[in-house]
From TrEMBL:
Catalytic EC class: oxidoreductase
Subunit description: Homotetramer.
Main localization category: cytoplasm
Keywords: Cytoplasm, Metal-binding, NAD, Oxidoreductase, Zinc
EC assignment: 1.1.1.103
Organism of origin: Streptomyces uncialis
This protein's name: L-threonine 3-dehydrogenase
Residues at the site labelled Important for catalytic activity for the proton relay mechanism but does not participate directly in the coordination of zinc atom: D148
Binding-site positions, Zn(2+) 2: C93, C96, C99, C107
Role of this protein: Catalyzes the oxidation of 2-deoxy-scyllo-inosamine (DOIA) with NAD(+) or NADP(+), forming 3-amino-2,3-dideoxy-scyllo-inosose (amino-DOI). Catalyzes the NAD(+)-dependent oxidation of L-threonine to 2-amino-3-ketobutyrate.
Gene transcribed to yield this protein: tdh
SUPFAM superfamilies the record matches: GroES-like, NAD(P)-binding Rossmann-fold domains
Reaction it catalyzes: L-threonine + NAD(+) = (2S)-2-amino-3-oxobutanoate + NADH + H(+); 2-deoxy-scyllo-inosamine + NADP(+) = 3-amino-2,3-dideoxy-scyllo-inosose + NADPH + H(+); 2-deoxy-scyllo-inosamine + NAD(+) = 3-amino-2,3-dideoxy-scyllo-inosose + NADH + H(+)
Length: 342
């Protein structure tokens, strides 16, 4: 089968012929239809410091996908050939305290699809049945391909009640944009999103945010004044991993404000802990999705009319992966989709 492979410890990817993955007793073999390109995939392609520390070659990349089940192992129940599915990309041990307590998203032994084991940038992928999400209602294939990052957005956005709240989102990348759409849909009063890319801020305006603020030319305090906010933001969703974004968010929260932080910083940085303490601000780290509560929430949001179409800005055949990755790495658009059906 064809697959996009990090075959050498150097920048770049290769489209190669590799063996079809083996199917174990509890596994599901999936014919991949579409995949989404993630920031993790960009790091691996660039072979940056994180990738050099984390990745063992050769490796088939990819963890955002939708496909059709073609075969199941003998121990698999309730999943049948022909089912359209996406996959939870965090494979957990099932034995640790958190797993046994039903908190699988907190497993310390998590292995990432397309990071710690071969992934979905291929014609076929194998997953344990426990990681397979069957789409029981019709869903657009492009949207189904990005259920993984959509789940990150939903997990982050729904960490705290949103109804009637003023929400600040720092970082208008694809997950920040999806979080903005979720916040609007879930009843936030104002949703403000910040970035320095006018292209991405324009996508946010199409989603319907209250204010898309270019922090290269304006401050978050300017945005507060523009909207008539007098006490700061109730909820903060930090999506950029940028030190200045987190500091500005803390400085513009109301007393008792709550921050969910998904953005992963490249290195340690200082924040105003005195402000966090004296303003009684809650900061919660977010990683991945709750299995599978977040997935239920995603499906229900889509059934309820949530529109993610503006977030998807590029579609390429898998043979055009170089152009697709360049588009994804440009920092100007939203989610980029690879089609594996041609």
């Amino acid at each position: 089968m064809k697959a996009l492979v990090k075959d050498r410890a150097e920048p770049g990817l290769r489209l190669m012929d590799v063996p079809e993955p083996a199917v174990g007793p509890g596994d599901v073999l999936i014919k991949v239809e579409r995949t989404g390109i993630c920031g993790t995939d960009l790091h691996i392609r660039a072979w940056d410091g994180w990738a050099r520390r984390t990745i063992s070659t050769p490796l088939v990349l990819g963890h955002e996908f939708v496909g059709v089940v073609v075969r199941t192992g003998p121990d698999v129940q309730d999943i049948t050939p022909g089912d359209r599915v996406s996959g939870e990309g965090h494979l957990v041990c099932g034995k640790c305290r958190n797993c046994q307590a039903g908190r699988r998203h907190l497993c310390r032994a998590t292995v990432g699809l397309g990071v710690g084991r071969d992934g979905a940038f291929a014609e076929y992928v194998v997953l344990p049945a426990a990681n397979v999400w069957v789409h029981r209602v019709p869903v657009d294939l492009d949207v189904a391909a990005i259920f993984d990052p959509f789940g990150n957005a939903v997990h982050t956005a729904l960490s705290f009640p949103l109804v009637g709240e003023d929400v600040l989102i720092t970082g208008a990348g694809p997950i920040g944009l999806m979080a903005a759409a979720v916040a609007r849909h879930a009843g936030a009063r104002n949703v403000v999103i910040t970035d320095i890319s006018e292209e991405r801020l324009e996508l946010a305006r199409k989603i319907g945010v209250s204010l898309a603020l270019n922090v290269g030319t304006s401050t978050i305090a300017d945005g507060q004044r523009q909207l008539g906010l007098r006490e700061g933001f109730d909820i903060g969703l930090e999506m950029s991993g940028r030190p200045e974004a987190m500091r500005d968010m803390i400085a513009n929260m109301t007393h008792g404000g709550r921050i969910a932080m998904l953005g992963l910083p490249a290195e340690e940085f200082a924040v105003d802990w005195s402000r966090i303490v004296t303003s009684m601000i809650t900061v919660k780290g977010i990683y991945g999705r709750e299995m599978f509560e977040t997935w239920y929430a995603m499906s229900v949001l889509l059934e309820g009319g949530l529109d993610l179409a503006p977030v998807i800005t590029g579609r390429y055949g898998y043979r055009d992966h170089e152009a697709a990755f360049e588009d994804a790495a440009s920092g100007r658009g939203g989610k980029i989709i690879l089609d594996w059906t041609d």
